[in-house]
Amino acid sequence: MTKVYGHRGCKGTYPENTLLGFRQAIKHGVDGIELDIHMTKDGEIVVIHDEKLDRTTDGAGYIKDLTLEEIKQFSAGNQFTHLPNYQEELWSQERVPTLKEVLELLAPYPIDLNIEFKTYMFEYEGIESKVHSIVSQFGGQRKVIYSSFYLPTILKMKKINPEATIALLIHNDGLLNQPNYLQNLPLSALNIAKDIVLSDSNLVKNLSYPICVWTVNKEEEIKQLLEQNVETIISDFPEKVLHSRNERKLYV
């Protein structure tokens, strides 16, 4: 059965990459959560998509130039007034969470976690070892997938922990046309942009990897990918995918 992961929590309805959004994804019954990480000036691993605070918080500046204490001064919720569930008093209190805080939130729930390293602009020296240490200490027995567009990062994770599950993020089909190159990499899975998978109905059958597809929000696309039995669907609206999956189970 295709797994359903909440993209940055519940990005379509709640502030992305926040504990609030992750809690909502858990309430919906997701099989996993996808999130993004950077490293602060003082070496803390924080959960945020961009290299800068500007878009998703009421702060400004690069994550790498700020300490965790400085980052925690800003709201990670009050930039999302356009979302349907916005509550000023509650959302304004949200802060950029650390990876440790997210793992502590997830502790009671046996769901997967896809950690995307945002290391293609700044490599963040030592980030892989820090993440391995945090996950080893607070991750429990859950399945953790380490993904990135930046291949050296996930290869470092594999070197640090040979048992690590690593997935290469792919947003064009160039690499998919080089199967020998991919087969020589110690990859566990491929995380592929939805348009690539939807444009080739045989792609999933032809690839010898579990396929995770991002970011799938439209009903028709969800149904097509469920029919292809892809390994995982990542969505801003995981509740939609879960509903479609449950409906499909009634007729299959």
How would you describe what is shown here?
- This protein has an 8-stranded parallel β-barrel with strand order 1-2-4-5-6-7-8-9, surrounded by 4 helices.
- It has 11 helices and 9 strands.
- The radius of gyration is 18 Å and the shape is globular.
- It has a single domain, classed as TIM Barrel, CATH 3.20.20.
- Helix 6 links the parallel strand 5 and strand 6.
- It is α/β, with parallel strands linked by helices.
- The chain starts with a strand and ends with a helix.
Q: How do you describe this structure in short?
A:
The chain has 252 residues and is α/β, with parallel strands linked by helices. It contains eleven helices and nine strands. It is globular and about 50 Å long.
Features:
34% helix; 252 residues; GP_PDE_dom; phosphoric diester hydrolase activity; Glycerophosphodiester phosphodiesterase; TIM Barrel; eight-stranded parallel β-barrel; alpha/beta; PLC-like_Pdiesterase_TIM-brl
